[in-house]
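Ligand: 2-acetamido-2-deoxy-beta-D-glucopyranose. Inputs:
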Amino acid sequence: MSFSTYFQFFGDNSKLITGFANQHPVIKSFLIGSVSGTSSTLLFQPFELIKTRMQNASASGKRRMMPLIIDVVRKEHVAGLWKGTVPSLVRCVPGVGLYFSTMSWMQTYLLQSQRPNALEAILMGVAARSFAGCLLMPFTVIKTRYESGLFQYTNVTEAVRVIYTTEGMRSLFRGLTPTLLRDAPFSGLYYMFYSQLKRIVEPTGSSQPLIQIPADLQAVSIFACGLSAGLLASLVTHPADVLKTKMQLHPQGFSNIFHVASIITREEGLRVLFAGVVPRMMRRTLMATMAWTFYESLMQNVGLKK
Ligand SMILES: *[C@@H]1O[C@H](CO)[C@@H](O)[C@H](O)[C@H]1NC(C)=O
Ligand SMILES: *[C@@H]1O[C@H](CO)[C@@H](O)[C@H](O)[C@H]1NC(C)=O
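Predicted complex:
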Protein backbone atom coordinates (compact mmCIF):
# COMPACT_ATOMS: atom_id res chain seq x y z
CA MET A 1 0.00 0.00 0.00
CA SER A 2 1.47 3.36 -0.96
CA PHE A 3 1.69 6.41 1.28
CA SER A 4 -1.32 8.20 -0.21
CA THR A 5 -3.63 5.18 -0.38
CA TYR A 6 -2.77 4.47 3.24
CA PHE A 7 -4.01 7.87 4.31
CA GLN A 8 -7.11 7.68 2.13
CA PHE A 9 -7.85 4.35 3.69
CA PHE A 10 -7.37 5.47 7.25
CA GLY A 11 -8.78 8.96 6.84
CA ASP A 12 -8.26 11.00 9.98
CA ASN A 13 -5.39 8.88 11.24
CA SER A 14 -3.13 10.89 8.97
CA LYS A 15 -3.38 13.80 11.44
CA LEU A 16 -2.42 11.50 14.27
CA ILE A 17 0.51 10.05 12.39
CA THR A 18 1.88 13.33 11.04
CA GLY A 19 1.26 14.90 14.46
CA PHE A 20 3.36 12.11 15.89
CA ALA A 21 6.04 12.62 13.25
CA ASN A 22 6.29 16.32 14.18
CA GLN A 23 6.92 15.68 17.86
CA HIS A 24 10.26 16.35 19.50
CA PRO A 25 12.55 13.28 19.03
CA VAL A 26 12.72 12.69 22.81
CA ILE A 27 8.93 12.60 23.11
CA LYS A 28 8.73 10.38 20.06
CA SER A 29 11.30 7.96 21.47
CA PHE A 30 9.51 8.00 24.82
CA LEU A 31 6.17 7.14 23.20
CA ILE A 32 7.70 4.41 21.03
CA GLY A 33 9.63 3.08 24.03
CA SER A 34 6.55 2.95 26.27
CA VAL A 35 4.26 1.40 23.69
CA SER A 36 6.79 -1.21 22.61
CA GLY A 37 7.88 -1.84 26.23
CA THR A 38 4.29 -2.35 27.38
CA SER A 39 3.32 -4.60 24.50
CA SER A 40 6.46 -6.69 24.65
CA THR A 41 6.03 -7.10 28.41
CA LEU A 42 2.48 -8.33 27.88
CA LEU A 43 3.37 -10.63 25.01
CA PHE A 44 6.66 -12.07 26.17
CA GLN A 45 6.32 -12.31 29.97
CA PRO A 46 6.14 -16.15 29.74
CA PHE A 47 9.75 -16.20 28.51
CA GLU A 48 10.81 -14.18 31.55
CA LEU A 49 8.92 -16.49 33.88
CA ILE A 50 10.44 -19.62 32.38
CA LYS A 51 13.88 -18.03 32.52
CA THR A 52 13.50 -17.30 36.24
CA ARG A 53 12.19 -20.82 36.92
CA MET A 54 15.09 -22.35 35.00
CA GLN A 55 17.55 -20.26 37.00
CA ASN A 56 16.08 -21.49 40.28
CA ALA A 57 15.64 -25.15 39.29
CA SER A 58 18.29 -27.37 40.81
CA ALA A 59 20.89 -28.90 38.50
CA SER A 60 19.77 -32.43 39.30
CA GLY A 61 16.10 -31.58 38.84
CA LYS A 62 14.34 -30.28 35.75
CA ARG A 63 16.01 -27.38 34.04
CA ARG A 64 14.64 -28.05 30.60
CA MET A 65 12.28 -25.63 29.00
CA MET A 66 9.38 -27.76 27.78
CA PRO A 67 8.89 -29.81 30.98
CA LEU A 68 8.93 -26.55 32.97
CA ILE A 69 6.32 -24.92 30.73
CA ILE A 70 4.06 -27.98 30.95
CA ASP A 71 4.50 -28.05 34.72
CA VAL A 72 3.53 -24.38 35.09
CA VAL A 73 0.48 -24.75 32.82
CA ARG A 74 -0.68 -27.88 34.67
CA LYS A 75 -0.31 -26.46 38.18
CA GLU A 76 -0.95 -22.75 37.68
CA HIS A 77 -2.95 -22.71 34.42
CA VAL A 78 -2.00 -20.76 31.31
CA ALA A 79 -2.38 -17.49 33.24
CA GLY A 80 0.38 -18.73 35.52
CA LEU A 81 2.83 -18.07 32.69
CA TRP A 82 2.05 -14.35 33.04
CA LYS A 83 2.97 -14.07 36.73
CA GLY A 84 5.16 -11.02 37.25
CA THR A 85 3.48 -8.98 34.51
CA VAL A 86 2.20 -6.34 36.95
CA PRO A 87 5.56 -5.43 38.56
CA SER A 88 7.09 -5.65 35.08
CA LEU A 89 4.62 -3.08 33.76
CA VAL A 90 4.91 -0.91 36.88
CA ARG A 91 8.62 -0.69 36.09
CA CYS A 92 8.33 -0.28 32.33
CA VAL A 93 6.73 3.11 31.69
CA PRO A 94 8.53 5.10 34.44
CA GLY A 95 11.68 3.24 33.38
CA VAL A 96 11.38 4.44 29.80
CA GLY A 97 10.50 7.94 31.04
CA LEU A 98 13.50 8.10 33.39
CA TYR A 99 15.75 6.79 30.64
CA PHE A 100 14.71 9.39 28.11
CA SER A 101 14.62 12.31 30.52
CA THR A 102 18.14 11.43 31.71
CA MET A 103 19.28 11.15 28.09
CA SER A 104 17.73 14.48 27.20
CA TRP A 105 19.17 16.16 30.33
CA MET A 106 22.66 14.94 29.44
CA GLN A 107 22.22 15.96 25.83
CA THR A 108 21.28 19.51 26.88
CA TYR A 109 23.62 20.11 29.83
CA LEU A 110 26.65 17.94 29.16
CA LEU A 111 26.85 18.10 25.38
CA GLN A 112 25.27 21.57 24.92
CA SER A 113 22.86 19.92 22.44
CA GLN A 114 25.67 18.75 20.13
CA ARG A 115 25.35 15.41 18.40
CA PRO A 116 27.12 12.77 20.50
CA ASN A 117 29.81 10.62 18.88
CA ALA A 118 29.64 6.81 19.22
CA LEU A 119 31.53 6.68 22.52
CA GLU A 120 29.52 9.54 24.05
CA ALA A 121 26.29 7.90 22.92
CA ILE A 122 27.32 4.63 24.58
CA LEU A 123 28.34 6.36 27.82
CA MET A 124 25.10 8.33 27.92
CA GLY A 125 23.13 5.15 27.35
CA VAL A 126 25.00 3.40 30.16
CA ALA A 127 24.46 6.29 32.58
CA ALA A 128 20.76 6.63 31.75
CA ARG A 129 20.10 2.91 31.92
CA SER A 130 21.98 2.52 35.21
CA PHE A 131 20.18 5.47 36.81
CA ALA A 132 16.73 4.14 35.85
CA GLY A 133 17.80 0.63 36.85
CA CYS A 134 18.87 1.76 40.35
CA LEU A 135 15.71 3.73 41.08
CA LEU A 136 13.37 0.99 39.89
CA MET A 137 15.27 -1.89 41.45
CA PRO A 138 12.52 -2.78 43.98
CA PHE A 139 10.18 -3.68 41.11
CA THR A 140 12.86 -5.89 39.57
CA VAL A 141 13.16 -7.78 42.86
CA ILE A 142 9.37 -8.16 43.12
CA LYS A 143 9.06 -9.22 39.49
CA THR A 144 11.64 -11.99 39.95
CA ARG A 145 9.89 -13.17 43.11
CA TYR A 146 6.46 -13.22 41.44
CA GLU A 147 7.90 -15.20 38.54
CA SER A 148 9.62 -17.73 40.79
CA GLY A 149 6.32 -18.81 42.36
CA LEU A 150 8.16 -19.17 45.69
CA PHE A 151 6.67 -16.07 47.32
CA GLN A 152 3.01 -15.19 47.78
CA TYR A 153 2.29 -11.46 47.70
CA THR A 154 -1.26 -10.17 47.19
CA ASN A 155 -0.18 -7.09 45.26
CA VAL A 156 2.85 -4.95 44.47
CA THR A 157 2.36 -2.40 47.30
CA GLU A 158 1.90 -5.26 49.75
CA ALA A 159 5.09 -6.88 48.40
CA VAL A 160 7.08 -3.67 48.94
CA ARG A 161 5.70 -3.41 52.50
CA VAL A 162 6.35 -7.06 53.40
CA ILE A 163 9.89 -7.08 52.01
CA TYR A 164 10.70 -3.76 53.69
CA THR A 165 9.37 -4.78 57.11
CA THR A 166 10.59 -8.39 57.20
CA GLU A 167 13.89 -8.18 55.31
CA GLY A 168 14.74 -4.48 55.37
CA MET A 169 15.53 -1.86 52.77
CA ARG A 170 18.56 -3.78 51.45
CA SER A 171 16.38 -6.59 50.16
CA LEU A 172 14.48 -4.17 47.92
CA PHE A 173 17.77 -3.40 46.19
CA ARG A 174 19.10 -6.97 46.25
CA GLY A 175 20.93 -7.92 43.06
CA LEU A 176 21.78 -4.33 42.11
CA THR A 177 25.44 -5.10 41.36
CA PRO A 178 24.79 -8.00 38.96
CA THR A 179 21.95 -6.01 37.36
CA LEU A 180 24.34 -3.15 36.63
CA LEU A 181 27.02 -5.60 35.47
CA ARG A 182 24.45 -7.03 33.09
CA ASP A 183 23.00 -3.76 31.77
CA ALA A 184 25.89 -1.28 31.81
CA PRO A 185 28.24 -3.10 29.39
CA PHE A 186 25.36 -4.04 27.11
CA SER A 187 25.38 -1.00 24.80
CA GLY A 188 29.17 -1.07 24.45
CA LEU A 189 29.20 -4.78 23.65
CA TYR A 190 26.28 -4.37 21.31
CA TYR A 191 27.97 -1.56 19.42
CA MET A 192 31.23 -3.49 19.19
CA PHE A 193 29.59 -6.65 17.82
CA TYR A 194 27.33 -4.65 15.54
CA SER A 195 30.09 -2.62 13.91
CA GLN A 196 32.21 -5.74 13.40
CA LEU A 197 29.34 -7.74 11.93
CA LYS A 198 28.31 -4.92 9.63
CA ARG A 199 31.76 -4.95 8.05
CA ILE A 200 30.93 -8.41 6.71
CA VAL A 201 27.95 -7.18 4.69
CA GLU A 202 28.69 -3.50 4.02
CA PRO A 203 31.51 -2.08 1.92
CA THR A 204 33.93 0.08 3.94
CA GLY A 205 35.91 2.69 2.03
CA SER A 206 37.57 1.04 -0.96
CA SER A 207 37.36 -2.55 0.30
CA GLN A 208 34.57 -4.87 -0.80
CA PRO A 209 32.33 -6.54 1.77
CA LEU A 210 33.02 -10.18 2.61
CA ILE A 211 29.58 -11.20 1.35
CA GLN A 212 27.79 -9.50 -1.55
CA ILE A 213 24.24 -8.63 -0.54
CA PRO A 214 21.67 -7.62 -3.19
CA ALA A 215 20.45 -4.06 -2.66
CA ASP A 216 16.88 -5.06 -1.78
CA LEU A 217 18.17 -7.28 1.02
CA GLN A 218 20.40 -4.58 2.57
CA ALA A 219 17.85 -3.60 5.20
CA VAL A 220 17.28 -7.22 6.19
CA SER A 221 21.00 -7.91 6.44
CA ILE A 222 21.53 -4.85 8.65
CA PHE A 223 18.66 -6.07 10.83
CA ALA A 224 20.32 -9.51 11.02
CA CYS A 225 23.56 -7.84 12.17
CA GLY A 226 21.69 -5.91 14.86
CA LEU A 227 19.88 -9.02 16.04
CA SER A 228 23.06 -11.12 16.15
CA ALA A 229 24.86 -8.35 17.99
CA GLY A 230 22.03 -8.26 20.54
CA LEU A 231 22.14 -12.03 20.99
CA LEU A 232 25.93 -12.06 21.44
CA ALA A 233 25.78 -9.21 23.95
CA SER A 234 23.02 -11.06 25.87
CA LEU A 235 25.09 -14.22 25.91
CA VAL A 236 28.12 -12.45 27.38
CA THR A 237 26.03 -10.75 30.09
CA HIS A 238 23.91 -13.80 30.94
CA PRO A 239 25.93 -15.03 33.95
CA ALA A 240 25.22 -11.69 35.69
CA ASP A 241 21.50 -12.30 35.10
CA VAL A 242 21.73 -15.70 36.82
CA LEU A 243 23.56 -14.20 39.83
CA LYS A 244 20.91 -11.47 40.05
CA THR A 245 18.08 -14.02 40.21
CA LYS A 246 19.82 -16.15 42.83
CA MET A 247 20.47 -13.13 45.06
CA GLN A 248 16.90 -11.85 44.77
CA LEU A 249 15.32 -15.22 45.55
CA HIS A 250 17.64 -16.16 48.40
CA PRO A 251 18.27 -12.96 50.35
CA GLN A 252 19.79 -14.76 53.35
CA GLY A 253 22.01 -17.07 51.36
CA PHE A 254 24.45 -14.80 49.61
CA SER A 255 26.35 -11.72 50.75
CA ASN A 256 27.87 -10.56 47.43
CA ILE A 257 28.32 -11.60 43.81
CA PHE A 258 31.63 -13.41 44.43
CA HIS A 259 30.03 -15.40 47.19
CA VAL A 260 27.00 -16.36 45.10
CA ALA A 261 29.16 -17.15 42.05
CA SER A 262 31.48 -19.45 43.99
CA ILE A 263 28.67 -21.27 45.81
CA ILE A 264 26.44 -21.92 42.81
CA THR A 265 29.25 -22.99 40.47
CA ARG A 266 30.59 -25.36 43.14
CA GLU A 267 27.14 -26.86 43.76
CA GLU A 268 25.74 -26.86 40.25
CA GLY A 269 28.74 -26.61 37.91
CA LEU A 270 29.70 -23.87 35.46
CA ARG A 271 26.65 -24.59 33.30
CA VAL A 272 24.45 -22.90 35.90
CA LEU A 273 25.84 -19.55 34.70
CA PHE A 274 23.90 -20.02 31.47
CA ALA A 275 20.64 -21.27 33.00
CA GLY A 276 17.66 -19.75 31.20
CA VAL A 277 19.73 -18.39 28.31
CA VAL A 278 17.42 -19.94 25.69
CA PRO A 279 14.16 -18.20 26.75
CA ARG A 280 16.08 -14.92 27.23
CA MET A 281 17.41 -15.11 23.66
CA MET A 282 14.05 -16.12 22.24
CA ARG A 283 12.45 -13.14 23.92
CA ARG A 284 15.13 -10.79 22.65
CA THR A 285 14.79 -12.12 19.09
CA LEU A 286 11.02 -11.73 19.09
CA MET A 287 11.24 -8.25 20.61
CA ALA A 288 13.81 -7.06 18.08
CA THR A 289 11.78 -8.44 15.20
CA MET A 290 8.62 -6.79 16.49
CA ALA A 291 10.33 -3.44 17.05
CA TRP A 292 11.89 -3.56 13.60
CA THR A 293 8.63 -4.42 11.85
CA PHE A 294 6.86 -1.66 13.77
CA TYR A 295 9.58 0.86 12.96
CA GLU A 296 9.74 -0.06 9.26
CA SER A 297 6.00 0.23 8.80
CA LEU A 298 5.90 3.51 10.71
CA MET A 299 8.68 4.92 8.51
CA GLN A 300 6.74 3.88 5.44
CA ASN A 301 3.49 5.29 6.75
CA VAL A 302 4.87 8.73 7.51
CA GLY A 303 6.41 8.79 4.05
CA LEU A 304 10.05 8.82 5.10
CA LYS A 305 10.60 5.70 3.07
CA LYS A 306 8.61 4.14 0.28
C1 LIG B 1 14.86 -22.74 44.33
O1 LIG B 1 14.12 -22.11 45.35
C2 LIG B 1 13.76 -22.91 46.46
C3 LIG B 1 12.98 -22.09 47.46
O2 LIG B 1 13.69 -21.01 47.95
C4 LIG B 1 15.00 -23.50 47.13
O3 LIG B 1 14.61 -24.38 48.17
C5 LIG B 1 15.81 -24.22 46.10
O4 LIG B 1 17.02 -24.65 46.70
C6 LIG B 1 16.13 -23.33 44.93
N1 LIG B 1 16.91 -24.05 43.96
C7 LIG B 1 18.14 -23.68 43.65
C8 LIG B 1 18.89 -24.58 42.73
O5 LIG B 1 18.66 -22.65 44.08
C1 LIG C 1 -2.91 -4.88 48.64
O1 LIG C 1 -3.10 -5.95 49.52
C2 LIG C 1 -3.31 -5.55 50.86
C3 LIG C 1 -3.36 -6.79 51.76
O2 LIG C 1 -4.02 -7.86 51.16
C4 LIG C 1 -4.60 -4.72 50.97
O3 LIG C 1 -4.80 -4.30 52.30
C5 LIG C 1 -4.44 -3.51 50.06
O4 LIG C 1 -5.63 -2.77 50.05
C6 LIG C 1 -4.08 -3.93 48.63
N1 LIG C 1 -3.79 -2.76 47.87
C7 LIG C 1 -4.26 -2.56 46.64
C8 LIG C 1 -3.82 -1.30 45.96
O5 LIG C 1 -5.00 -3.35 46.09
